[in-house]
Design goal:
This protein has helices at residues 3-13, 26-35, 44-49, 60-73, 90-102, 124-139, 161-173, 187-196, 214-220, 230-249, and strands at 18-20, 40-41, 78-81, 107-111, 146-150, 178-180, 201-204, 224-226. Helix 5 links the parallel strand 3 and strand 4. Helix content is 47%, strand content 11%. The chain has one domain: Phosphoenolpyruvate-binding domains (TIM Barrel, Alpha-Beta Barrel). The protein has an 8-stranded parallel beta sheet with strand order 1-8-7-6-5-4-3-2, with helices on both faces.
Length: 258
């Protein structure tokens, strides 16, 4: 598919609930596409992990290069976790989206987390200006890029549902195509978010005790279900357990599970 075809197809998937697993490199992307998934996402945490870093420690250039490798490895749409746009200003967010469209990403997300431990979230006004700038860059693309706007309240020490909804409503009004609040604590909160918005909502599976079935999420109104770092963590856990068996016991029973 051309970037145009991928982008159009990606938008159409949001008509009903669908799964979008997060690849961590080109090989995992090929594996996931081979299973039949219709679209893939990147994960900032997994992208950092493969470089031996923590989430939030990639540069824009590194994140774009990581996404490009995944885009070029598969013939299905890819949406990227673009953190806060790798800068504090609206222009920083816009530039990140321009670079995302240049490599053929079908979509990408911009969040309201500042990266500043003293003030981890942007004020709602500034956050909305950043989303609006990202939307403008997406609309200027040669194809219909899907812009996701994220409210990070529940991951950044401010588990306030009302404020989360206000932020998402502001982002929706600014033109975001998909809304996303990672870390929602229960299905009641998911239902409240979905009911408060008219655009599709993404739910992030990957937090123990705060992840729900596809059927439950679909009934709550969710249109897109991503998996964050969970597949990467599952793969690394399997590798660690196998290596630990070899190191500690000198046996290789893990081969029986391959």
């Amino acid at each position: 598919m051309t970037p145009q075809d991928k982008a159009v197809h990606f938008k159409s998937l949001h008509a009903k609930a669908f799964l979008i697993p997060n690849a961590w490199d080109a090989g995992s992307a090929k594996m996931l596409a081979g299973l039949g998934f219709q679209a893939l996402a990147t994960s900032s945490g997994a992208a950092a992990g493969v470089l031996g870093r923590k989430d939030g420690q990639l540069t824009r250039a590194e994140a774009i290069a990581h996404a490009r490798a995944i885009v070029e490895s598969v013939d299905i749409p890819v949406s990227a976790d673009l953190e806060n746009g790798f800068g504090h200003t609206p222009e920083d967010a816009a530039e990140t989206i321009r670079q995302a469209t240049a490599i053929g990403l079908a979509g990408g997300s911009i969040e309201d987390a500042s990266g500043d431990a003293a003030k981890p979230l942007y004020d709602i006004g500034h956050a909305t200006e950043r989303v609006a700038a990202a939307v403008a860059a997406a609309r200027a693309s040669r194809y219909p890029f899907t812009l996701t706007a994220r409210s990070e309240n529940y991951l950044r020490g401010n588990p306030d549902l009302d404020d989360t909804i206000r932020r998402l409503q502001a982002f929706e009004k600014a033109g975001a195509d998909v809304l996303f609040a990672p870390g929602l604590p229960d299905l009641a909160a998911v239902r409240a978010v979905c009911a408060a918005l008219s655009k599709p909502v993404n739910f992030m599976v990957g937090i123990k005790g705060k992840s729900f079935s596809v059927a439950e999420l679909e009934a709550a109104g969710v249109k897109r279900i991503s998996l964050a770092t969970s597949l990467y963590r599952a793969a690394m856990t399997g590798a660690r357990d196998a290596a630990q068996e070899v190191f500690e016991h000198g046996t290789f029973t893990y081969l029986d599970r391959l």
